[in-house]
Design a protein that fits this description.
Layout: E1 3-8, H1 23-40, E2 44-47, H2 59-69, E3 74-81, H3 87-100, E4 105-110, H4 134-149, E5 183-186, H5 190-198, E6 202-205, E7 208-210, H6 217-235, E8 243-251, H7 255-261, E9 270-273, E10 279-282, E11 285-288, H8 290-298, H9 301-305, E12 308-312, H10 319-333
Helix pairs in contact: 1-2, 1-10, 2-3, 3-4, 5-6, 8-10
């Protein structure tokens, strides 16, 4: 068995060719797709967070709304860019959304990806400490976030409060028990995957990874996952970690699928630079008839290593079509791989 969910960037554009033309469309359709995914038997609805972009930028209202409209499906992010976050305020937002959802949040956080603007976090009022990088800042904020999610009191109470206080030092509220174990780190390198394991976070690995060995993408990603699991065991954590990988996978079962994804050859990894010095490898897209797709996916080492698969969806094609994409995988592909 493998958990299967979707990952949406929530793109919107005022184009007659898009089914998602406004920010309102992107948000409301995201909720509708989460409801549809739950009805189809999928396990997760995950959303990417990008600032300064026509995409989903503020995840907690969306997660809370989706949590109020669903009953079973996991709701998460992949990922929240910690460079932009106030960790304490984020603890409150996350706790509230998780309580509304009944303890179903799975929050992916990270350093983030290349941005729409230059050093966008500075507009939010944040600066890295002297001698530190923005990546250092993101990891430090993540550590603070994890510490305060634990629910321990730390703030000295006012002796003359407006409302009565419980005894002892005060914690951030609302507190949601168990959320600390449902935090994931989006790692683009083997080293940050090991760091995430040491900190007791689950691992998210996307369709992009720094090229650290020259092997095919799925092989490098599998190596990363094994390094994470080894570091987790060495750290002595008491629970089992979770690992997700993201993939673009389309089962060609009707004319729409073939028109959208049945042309061209994207069945290979690509190499690129995400900044002046960082060479990255981008995982291939899978698009084929179900029987051929099963055989191709069977050879993906990283999918085999992970317990959770997130399917990136073309959200601007609309809720109905994306529900069809999910149903096609769940019905025609997952059983053949033992995932259902």
């Amino acid at each position: 068995m493998k958990k299967i969910g979707f990952l949406s960037f929530g793109h919107w554009t005022p184009s007659p060719h898009s089914e998602t033309r406004t920010a309102s469309d992107a948000l409301l359709q995201s909720i509708d797709l989460a409801v549809a995914a739950e009805e189809l038997g999928a396990d997760g609805a995950y959303f990417r967070v990008h600032h300064f972009a026509r995409q989903l930028g503020s995840p907690f209202p969306l997660l809370a709304a989706a949590g109020a409209k669903t009953k079973r499906i996991e709701l998460g992010t992949a990922v929240i860019d910690m460079r932009y976050e106030n960790p304490l305020y984020m603890v409150e937002d996350a706790g509230a959304a998780d309580l509304i959802a009944g303890g179903r949040l799975q929050l992916g956080i990270s350093r983030g990806s290349p941005e729409q603007v230059i050093d966008g976090w500075r507009y939010f009022g944040y600066e890295a400490e002297d001698g530190k990088t923005d990546a250092d800042m993101a990891r430090r904020k993540a550590e603070i976030f994890l510490d305060f999610l634990g629910g321990d009191g730390f703030a000295e109470p006012n002796p003359r409060p407006m409302f009565p206080n419980p005894p002892g030092l005060l914690r951030l509220e609302p507190y949601s028990e168990g959320l600390r174990d449902r935090i994931w780190w989006g790692a683009a390198t083997n080293g940050t995957a090991v760091w995430a394991a040491e900190k007791g976070m689950n691992l998210q690995s996307s369709t992009l990874k720094f090229d650290e060995g020259g092997q095919p993408f799925h092989v490098q990603q599998a190596i990363q996952i094994r390094a994470f699991r080894e570091a987790w065991a060495k750290a002595g954590h008491k629970r089992e970690p979770r690992v997700s990988v993201s993939r673009s996978i389309f089962a060609l079962v009707d004319a729409r699928d073939r028109a959208y994804f049945g042309r061209g050859n994207e069945g290979r990894d690509t190499i690129g630079y995400i900044d002046d010095t960082t060479r990255a490898i981008f995982g291939r897209r899978y698009a084929a008839e179900p029987d051929a797709l099963i055989e191709e996916l069977r050879r993906d080492e990283a999918i085999a290593e992970a317990d959770t698969l997130l399917l990136t969806v073309p959200n601007q094609l609309g809720v109905d079509y994306n529900a069809h994409v999910l149903e096609s995988i769940l019905k025609h592909v997952a059983p053949g791989l033992g995932w259902r």
